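Record 1 of the preview.
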Amino acid sequence: MATIKGIDVSEFQGVLDWSKIKAAGIKFAILRAGYGRYETDSVFHENARRANAAGIPIGVYWFSYAINTAGAKQEAQKCLEVIKEHTVTLPVYFDFEYDTVTYAKKQGVTLGRQAFNDHSVAFCDTIQAAGYRAGVYYNLDYLDRLMDMSRIGKYSLWFAQYNSYPQASGWDLWQYSSSGSIAGISARFDMNQADESYLQGSEPQTYEPGWQKDGKGWWYRWEDGSYPKSQWAEIDGKWYYFGEDGYMAAEKWIYGIASPYYVGSDGAMVTDKVLRLDSEGKLVPAGSYYNKISEVPKTYRETLDKLVSRVILKGAGGSGEDLILNMGEDAVRVLVLLDRAGVF
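->
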């Protein structure tokens, strides 16, 4: 099977001209999405958009600074958050390097064989649970000292050795140089080699628009693949607020230039509802509030229907099921209790 060439890049190469990269015969690219638990590569989004637009399949890698498995899982969750707006069809790689070990040592933690494998599995399993392919980056030293193939071999393997030939087998991707060049671009590139089969299944994915859920929460994908963030969005007649990370807010006040708004447990903006102070002094919505009589539970309807028929309860407008009540549940319950006591 024929071999193909690719590159891997980060913010150190800057924002790139992907049309020139494609013209140079580069068939794929692995982009650094970020590092640690919080940091996004400063040029990742722009390079991912441009590579997608140029039709170059991309994968990503995440440089780890995790000192335990919980940290590795958090890194995976952050990675998923960062890449979700792009078409990533190649694997998402876990990058555990010497700097990872040095950083952990400064925190008083020694990372060895057990940690390498535990962290890799925690990261990769989180990535795969979200529907992506996952992989592990390693070199010959790590292969000899750290890797447990019975645990790591099930993921895509990205082997690094700057040599005329790889002194290992079983890899999917071989990083063979750190000094590659592309005509018209001044940056130097890490060069990679793979069989054509590496790109199988890398055709642009089609995503279903609508509500999406992952390990962190709910978010919404529009028809064009984008998603709302740091904004209100009207969806199916209801208003929802999405934070700067793109996830739906729930059970909280959203403050803006105008008055604050409250979103309920389902994320939808709460309207026509009485407010109260809770035990901590916070302003929160009171119990159920009924704008129209059609919203009242069946257990209360017998009393309300009787009061309406006797013209005791006239409402604020409308008629029939559209009779406007503007009543809280507590007020409705008082009417029911009075009715049961024989007042009506």
